[in-house]
Amino acid sequence: MQQIMEMLRIQNIKCKPENRKQSLREWFCGLFGISSESIEEIRLVRESIDARKKPLVILLRTIEVCCKEETKLISQLKKKRYDWQKVSPFSYPYPTKLEKRENIVVVGCGPAGLFAAYFLALAGQKVTLLERGRDILQRTKDVEDFWSEGKLLADSNVSFGEGGAGTFSDGKLNTLVKDKSGRNRAVLETFVTFGAPQAILYEAKPHVGTDILKQVIYTMRLRLEEMGVEVLFRTCVEQFLTKQESIVGVVTRKGQRIPCNRVVLAIGHSARDTFEALKTTGVSMEQKAFAVGFRVEHPQDMINRSQYGEIYADMLPAAPYKVAAKTSYGRNVYSFCMCPGGYVVNASTEKNATAVNGMSYSGRDGENANSAIIVSVEPKDFPSDDVLAGVAFQRDLERRAYLAGKGKVPCDTLGHFRQSVLHPQEESKTSMSKGLRPQIKGGFTVTDISDILPRELNLAFLEGMEQFGRQIEGFDREDAILSAVESRTSSPVRILRNETYESNIKGLYPCGEGAGYAGGIMSAAMDGIKVAEAIISQISLTDTGI
Hints:
Strands 14-15-18-13-22-19-21 form a seven-stranded mixed β-sheet. A five-stranded parallel β-sheet has the order 7-6-5-11-24, with helices on one face. The chain has a four-stranded antiparallel β-sheet with strand order 2-3-1-4, covered by helices on one side. 29% of the residues lie in helices and 25% in strands. It is α/β, with parallel strands linked by helices. It folds into three domains: 81 residues, Alpha-Beta Plaits (2-Layer Sandwich), CATH 3.30.70.2700; 234 residues, FAD/NAD(P)-binding domain (3-Layer(bba) Sandwich), CATH 3.50.50; 198 residues, no CATH class.
């Protein structure tokens, strides 16, 4: 199709949820009284659900259209007072091949590493992609074996392996990053190219689900290999080789030496041994604030009715929510990684330690909604000035969770948890014999979890839950289920980098969540692109002799 250089963009057109059954063209033409034949091109740019005035629920659509009856359409837009403008479609400037070709190592096969490798390969660079875990097919089997049999593999689990930690999650593709460069759109387009549904290009809160995301990641990796990227699984970097404060190569756990002058460090937030190796190498890092708490489950039907109202509760997709509170303890409490119709998952990576996360399939059709409800912690909460004190803090919580659950995910009801925290001297038993039942991937046990977090964090959590109960009816219900411990919300360290995205070690490029510069699939992927752009620019300058 010939590219249309100028289109009309019409924002926030109101649409009834029932109209979703109509084709976009049919609905639009009926709304503005123009003929279908006059539409040369039409696309849905954005669609969101507005349920602020329940029971009235509407969809808000932003449309771009090229129409032969433009004069008539503009007249209708002015009459109905729609916000519109003429726009020229913007396309992200994907890299083209450079004459100069360098050997570049990318460490980590999560979103940041995958997108850095992909964009470097588009620029014709020789990329070696190292992943400590296994490929997605074997990794999926390893994770399912762990959930069913409790057999944990240190390098092939919910956090480690092809696709990174986000692969076994809800596959949320929304981000709060303000990005005028088009990287956000480039990431979404790339996902669609490799099999994600077209809807992610316009949904206000796009998601793909872990079932689809795994296939997308697999297809993307096959394309990388076709482009000449060497992908090495079960290859963990143990040492970074430097000379005169510049990177000259890496050494893997197997003893393999890989010479290079540029390393993209996309290691993820759980690569604790790599943090140690970086510290030994003298890479500049600093402690970073993060948050910890519990996975909290509610009936998805309850969330739907609260968010959409009774009329549309069963008509619209499983409803998400977002809650946040400032507590009297000076700590923020908020929801994180909310999974509509999802499951709590055992996301442990170390022996004798338990961590949880959340996951949804693309259908989001599970009985429960779950979200991490987390409490902010800062470096002042850590017991040491050591740059890795946050890691020690996380580990302590995860060991406590492991002991509480005796190796399984420890669960409690909010009612019992509240009683245990506020009245610890009074004995009480926790029970889930009635009401809500946990939806958990992996073994779980019902037990007291009030001794896992420090008391001040428990109190802040309870205060937050009380506030959320006033925002969403039933949120603080007695039988809401808590699972422990949500400790891997973000990296506990930041690996410092300069304006060219390099660390104090020249040629070492910290990237993504593990480096402290992202907080989810999209922001990590976008950070991978930014680092790739910086490297391409540097190579291009040296290629031209500047």
